[in-house]
Each structure stands twice: as C-alpha cells, then as structure tokens.
C-alpha cells in the first residue's frame, strides 16, 4: 500500500505486522529505488513494516511518485523471499558480564535462569535489523527468545556506555555511542558501530549474531570497562 503522509512524503506499507522476512525485503526495496536514480528523491526511512520516501514536491507530485514506485513495489512482492538470500551476516563480539552488563543478573533472576543461560539464549539467535533510529547507528534487532524478553526501565539511565548491549521487550540492540537509555544492559561490544566517515556498520536487512568473548579478548579488541 502506498499512501501520502505529507506534501513531500509517502509511506509504503509492505505488511500489517512484523515479520523476520521484512527487513531483507525492505532493504531490497531501498536498494531498488536508489538504483532507479530518481532526481526527485530526497531521503528514505525504513522501519519495521514500512518505508517512508521523502521527495521534492517542486519537482514531482504524489501521483507521479506513486506511478514510479508502484512497479518497483510490485516487482519486489513477486520475488517472494529471494531477497532474504542476499542479506548480510554480521558477527558482533560481546563481553557478557556484571561489569559490562549491570542488568544481567537482574534479568537472569526475573527469567528464572542463571546468567550463563541468559547469555546462551541471547547469543544463540540470529537477529534481523528491522530499523535504524534513536541515535546514529542504533539498530533495532529482533527477536530475542521470549524467556529473556524484558521491559524497558521505568527510569532510563542518564548515560549508557558506547557498545552496551541491551534488551527491550523482544528487541535487542547495541548502543553505538554514549547516550541516555532505558534498555536492560547485559554486556558490551568492542566493535565500533558508527563513525562520521563510514556511517552505520549495520543496515536494515542485515542478519546479526552475537558471539560471547572473554574479558581479555574484549580489552584486546579495544573495549573499555567504563561505568
């Protein structure tokens, strides 16, 4: 479905609910639109089930944009799940511990598990990047095992260290920069996820797997033990 949002924005809805196949399909749609080279295209903002397209209303109107995008959307829908085969796998190392994950023990207690099992369940799933937002390079990934899903904190932390790995409901994410945040923190990743030159390491449609590493490996990879 393609519908107007404002005088310079339209929204393409690919599905009514979150689906693990959607990130790759949306990423494929973004790539197809970008490769089309439309002179009126200003920006694209992918989300869980939608893609928002921003255009220059001086150069084109809603009807013209829709006429150009409808065949691309239709072509994607007829491809089935072939886009899933093209998605990239990114492996991120994580030092799961009390000193890097201050909510790890709390989450284990709430889940009726020990910390080792929480770590095993979090790192045994291959996640999909559904959306980017909140902060540059912040990738919303899903879905975590229901047994370790946890709500956001009632009172967010004023400062979360860069690289912190968190859980919020059935989503997981890595904080790319120091920022406020209310997710339940269970570890820290030493990999740099965003910089002004290469921008975001993770893209919508990527597959992500977390790999547990030791304290020594974390420090050797450039990780910092800051609170």
TrEMBL record:
Oxidoreductase keyword on record: no
Domain of life: Bacteria
Segments forming a coiled coil: none
Keyword tags: ATP-binding, Hydrolase, Nucleotide-binding
Gene3D superfamilies found in the cross-reference section: 3.30.1360.40, Cyclophilin-like
The protein's name in its UniProt record: Allophanate hydrolase subunit 1
GO molecular function, one term: hydrolase activity
Domain Carboxyltransferase: 2-202
SUPFAM superfamilies: Cyclophilin-like, PH0987 N-terminal domain-like
Keyword Nucleotide-binding: yes
């Amino acid at each position: 479905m393609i519908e107007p949002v404002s005088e310079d924005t339209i929204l393409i809805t690919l599905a009514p609910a979150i689906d693990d196949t959607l990130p790759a399909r949306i990423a494929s749609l973004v790539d197809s639109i970008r490769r089309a080279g439309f002179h009126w295209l200003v920006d694209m903002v992918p989300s869980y089930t939608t893609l928002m397209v921003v255009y220059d209303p001086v150069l084109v109107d809603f009807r013209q944009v829709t006429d150009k995008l409808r065949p691309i959307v239709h072509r994607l829908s007829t491809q089935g799940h072939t886009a899933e085969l093209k998605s990239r796998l990114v492996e991120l190392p994580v030092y799961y511990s009390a000193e890097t994950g201050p909510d790890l023990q709390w989450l284990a207690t709430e889940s009726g598990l020990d910390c080792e099992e929480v770590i095993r369940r979090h790192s045994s799933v291959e996640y999909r990047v559904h959306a980017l937002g909140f902060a540059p390079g912040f990738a919303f990934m899903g879905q975590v095992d229901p047994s370790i899903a946890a709500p956001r904190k009632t009172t967010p932390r004023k400062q979360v260290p860069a690289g912190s790995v968190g859980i919020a409901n059935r989503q997981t994410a890595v904080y790319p920069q120091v920022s406020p945040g209310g997710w339940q923190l269970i570890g820290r990743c030493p990999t740099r996820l965003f910089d002004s030159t290469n921008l975001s390491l993770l893209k919508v449609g990527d597959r992500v797997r977390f790999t547990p590493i030791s304290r020594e490996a974390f420090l050797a990879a450039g990780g910092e033990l800051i609170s």
